[in-house]
Amino acid sequence: MAKFKIATPAGASFTTAGGGYDYEMEPLEGIDAEIVEGPATEDGFIAFAQDADAVYAKGMRFTKKVVDALPDRCRAIVLGSVGVDSVDVKAATERGMPVTNCPDTFIEEVADHALTLLLSSFRRVIEQDRMVREGRWSEGRPALLQIPRLMGQTLGLIAFGHVARAVAKRAKAFGLRVIAYDPFIEELVMVEHGVLPVTLEEVLSQSDFVSMHAPATPEAEGMLMEKHFRLMKKTAIFINTGRGPTVQEAGLIKALSEGWIAHAGLDVLEIEPPGNNNPILGMPNVTLSAHTASASARFDPARKRHVGRELALVLNGKWPMSCVNPAVLQNGTKLRRWQPISMERGPNS
Questions:
Q1: 284 and 303 in one domain?
Q2: Alpha-carbon torsion, ordered 122, 123, 125, 129, to 10 deg
Q3: Residue from 192, 219, 258, 272 carrying the catalytic annotation
Q4: For the segment 302-318, what is each residue's pLDDT rounded down to a tens digit?
Q5: Which of 243, 263, 305, 345 is catalytic?
Q6: Are residue 112 and residue 233 in the same domain, yes or no?
Q7: For labeling, which of 90, 114, 183, 239 is most exposed (least CB within 10 Å)?
Q8: Given 291, 303, 306, 309, which residue is catalytic?
């Protein structure tokens, strides 16, 4: 039996099956630790994790009940994702338990995907493809003659974390004017990226494209409602590569069906996967992908190695790098500071 037990629910996260834990174990080499799978149910995992030195959180929701039941010896809850909505961070903070994420591992992929959805929605790529396949070749050019030139239009970003900043950089290469709303980011940070800080209402009313990047925190859940879509231009395109629950989908559906906005490019939905009764699936003015924005050949190796590095640090008694509740490092744990840590890291990345 190893000195350190890293408890994790059985099964894979992000629907990526197989592969074992070789990547996670690379940074743990030389540490007498093993990753052990247990039940992916609340009660089953609670019983299984009573001797855990750390938790690798995946495959289930880590509710307050689960977090509160973790043993005092548990040094951290480690996630292999940017989002931390599967863990009750507040409960972990009250326990003095660090929660870590992967804030900078898939940034470029998600930014690429956001621009892909923006461009394919704007240029009606799926509609054009369908016209060609259905023998409606002559309809393609007239359809695009109805839309303006992309250069000079306005992209509005909701939240200005790492992904949004990477999107802004890409958008500027296409000649877009970029504005952003984020009450948790200093306006000077936006200015340094050539982005104009504005209010949420200004993002919605001025933008030809609105790209949602808010994290699925309790404060941001259901953030965009029917009233917000009413503020948007009738020609506007809404992009979401962040989290589905940040948008009240009924309001978005109404906006799309009644023509308040022109189109939506969505990588995330309120409920995933969607049920067959979700009206979005039948809407011709929606471009969809299956929560795949972060996916690339680098995805699994990079995030799993990041998880392993965080586990190695906490098992060696050191602060993790990407703590989303950094106050616990100062006040609630016995882990020691080993180098300057940026407090900008976190779930709004």
A1: no
A2: 140
A3: 272
A4: 999 999 999 999 999 99
A5: 243
A6: yes
A7: 183
A8: 291
